[in-house]
Amino acid sequence: MRTALAIARKELTIYFTTPWAWAVFTAMLALASFFFVGMLHEFQRTQELARTHGWEKIPAQFRNLTDGVMVPFWSSVMIITLFVAPFLSMRLFAEEKRNKTFELLMTSPVRPLEIVLGKYLGGLGIITTTLGLTILYPLLLTLFGQSESGTVLEWTTVWLGYGGLLLWGATCMAIGLFISTLTESQMVAALLTFAILLPWTMLRGLAQTFEEPVRSFIEHLSFDAQLQGLLRGVVELEALVFFCSVIFFCLLLSHRAVEAQRWA
What we know:
- Helices cover about 80% and strands about 0% of the residues.
- It is built from 13 helices and no strands.
- It has helices spanning about 1-15, 20-55, 65-90, 90-100, 100-105, 110-130, 135-145, 155-180, 185-200, 205, 215-220, 225-230, 235-260.
């Protein structure tokens, strides 16, 4: 495990000493700010309508900042992560192959499992940092928001939603790690990762074209369907098992791919 942690530290050092990570951080904050401001504006507009015309025709979600702003905001961050994660995971193995250092790594006294775990932990650290920037927005609401009940946000719901995002980011990195083991082109790795994540996320919409029980089965496999409960602050054991299974399976495939290339 010590070797895996050393590899993870090396990966994080590389990330934070290159402009690419900072460009991703900037893009995440810019896009997240755009969605946050838009949702906050919609919430304020709905509140004004409610004061004028009454609360009867106003959706219940707009009666507090947690459901009216943070829950849909986490859903937007989920979509942003879908685009960001492939560009963070693409270099994990592909860059080693492009720079011809993969062979050196394979001949070192390090087990393939330690290499895979180290690379993944490094990727997990950078995606956690990227998503960690978004915690700024609920903090801003807490500092400057107002509520008749005295509590601006339901932080239990906020933290559970944030935990769901971290689980989603960890899953994206696991898939990206596996794809990165298969090619030496970083751009190809990013595009293939995105090409897998996007339709897998959209399975929920595709399921509506089928009849039961096929519809329920396809919805069960959708990332979006599995995440919705967590983003709303609802702990679902089924979703946790689903995402942990995908992560484990992708790490297993990555290990097998690296091991096969070591003896090729």
